[in-house]
Design a protein that fits this description.
Blueprint lengths: L2 H20 L2 H11 L3 H21 L3 H24 L4 H16 L4
């Protein structure tokens, strides 16, 4: 596993997940409404981001677990890009999760 890139991706998902879970309830509701999902689903996805980052961290010692976490996070980011496209967000907001997905996929390279 590419440890330098994995470190960047781990920090990204950890910070994003924690920021989303610790945001005010009003901000969480607004984001969930924007994406057309329930507040519960929004919080679950935020938790998955944190768990994925933890999976990548453990994957530094146990590579198969890191690969599984990376695959899950890539799929999650592709789904986020699709939601952003459906919500008619700008091109930059659609491209960002795809860039993160590519970086996450890069962590699987030795």
């Amino acid at each position: 596993m590419n440890t330098a890139l994995a470190g960047i991706v781990i920090v990204f998902f950890g910070v994003q997940g924690i920021a989303r879970l610790t945001a005010s309830p009003e901000d969480q509701r607004a984001a969930a409404y924007h994406f057309g999902v329930s507040l519960s689903e929004y919080r679950k996805v935020s938790g998955l981001m944190i768990l994925g980052g933890l999976g990548l961290t453990i994957g530094l010692a146990v590579p198969p677990l890191g690969v599984a976490a990376a695959v899950g996070l890539v799929l999650l980011m592709v789904l986020v890009a699709g939601l952003r496209l459906l919500c008619q967000d700008g091109a930059l907001r659609v491209a960002l999760p795809l860039v993160v997905a590519a970086l996450t996929a890069g962590t699987m390279m030795w």
